[in-house]
Design goal:
Elements: H1 19-29, E1 34-38, E2 42-43, H2 83-86, H3 89-97, E3 100-103, E4 110-115, H4 118-127, E5 132-135, E6 140-145, E7 151-155, E8 158-161, E9 167-168, E10 178-179, H5 182-185, H6 217-232, H7 238-253, H8 261-273, H9 278-292
Parallel strand pairs: 6-10
Antiparallel strand pairs: 1-2, 1-3, 3-9, 4-6, 4-8, 5-6, 7-8
Helix pairs in contact: 6-7, 6-8, 7-9
């Protein structure tokens, strides 16, 4: 994590501030968005005007939406580097009740591999490149430079926290920061379940017969590569992009039985790398099949 720099002068007298806020301000000054956590290492809940996402925030706090609440209302999305916000009355009241400082790794350009126990630490030492480490109660946090989609339980005792997540701040750690490796990104890509190809018999016979042109390896490979690229390059509306892409692939290649499990695994992996779950992928695939009457 970036080493904290000196906080701004108007906040340099910290004797009247809650102790945790005195820890948080230098982090914020160093560009690390921070927030307080209450008992149980949980974020503070919505205030009354924000209950039920009435402020515009989306369920599960995927984004804070247009909410302008001055309080600590939206978990990771409330994390800030603004010292004026951090020292405002709603926040100082929260800091007085807080039990620890947390931060939003993704907004700081970081990814945290949260290793919950000794077995997970041993696994990381054997399979991941060395980087900055921070001791936790039972395991370690490994900090990498770079961001990715956050995922829990990517393997026993291992969570990945980066974008749209928060992690506890447990100190500056030891060792130099390493760049986010492919081995960590790969943890978030789960193998999809078997994909049943569409049986050729389900489609009316082609006039004149002959071999299906989609079986030409280069033609089918190009189609899958384009589909993967479309999903990978999506910057918004990922759900819709995945569905439209699946629909396009099935409409072109789904009626002749050409698609294999390997082709679908590539599409599912691309979608999961953008934050989709296996269930989202399966639902999008099923809905596309239904739309096309397959």
């Amino acid at each position: 994590m970036t080493q904290p720099t000196l906080i701004r002068r108007e906040h340099s007298s910290t004797h009247a501030l809650p102790a945790l806020l005195q820890t948080a301000l230098p982090l914020a000054a160093a560009g690390v968005p921070v927030l307080p956590l209450r008992a149980g290492k949980k974020p503070f809940g919505n205030c009354r005007p924000c209950m039920g996402n009435a402020c515009g925030g989306r369920p599960n706090m995927k984004t804070a939406g247009p909410c302008r609440c001055p309080g600590v209302c939206h978990a990771w999305a409330a994390a800030t580097t603004d010292p004026d916000v951090l020292t405002s009355p709603p926040w100082t009241a929260a800091w007085q009740r807080a039990v620890c400082v947390a931060y939003h790794p993704g907004a700081a350009g970081l990814t945290v591999v949260d290793l919950d126990d000794a077995a997970a630490v041993d696994w990381a030492r054997a399979h991941l490149p060395a980087t900055r480490t921070i001791a936790t109660t039972r395991g370690e946090h490994w900090i990498y430079r770079g961001t990715m989609t956050s995922h829990n339980a990517v393997r026993p005792g291992v969570d990945v926290k980066s974008s749209m997540a928060y992690a506890r701040y447990l100190g500056p750690g030891t060792g130099p920061l390493a760049d986010l490796p492919d081995a960590v990104c790969a943890l978030a890509v789960k193998t999809p379940g078997p994909v049943r190809p569409v049986a050729p018999a389900a489609v009316p016979a082609r006039s004149g017969g002959g071999e299906c042109p989609h079986r030409t390896p280069a033609y089918l490979e190009r189609g899958i590569a384009i589909a993967v690229q479309q999903i990978t390059e999506a910057r918004s509306a990922v759900h819709a992009t995945v569905y439209r892409t699946f629909l396009a692939v099935l409409s072109r290649h789904g009626r002749c039985g050409c698609l294999t499990d390997a082709h679908m695994a590539r599409l599912f992996a691309a979608a999961q790398a953008k934050g989709e779950t296996v269930r989202h992928c399966t639902d999008a695939w099923t809905n596309a099949r239904t739309t096309l009457g397959l």
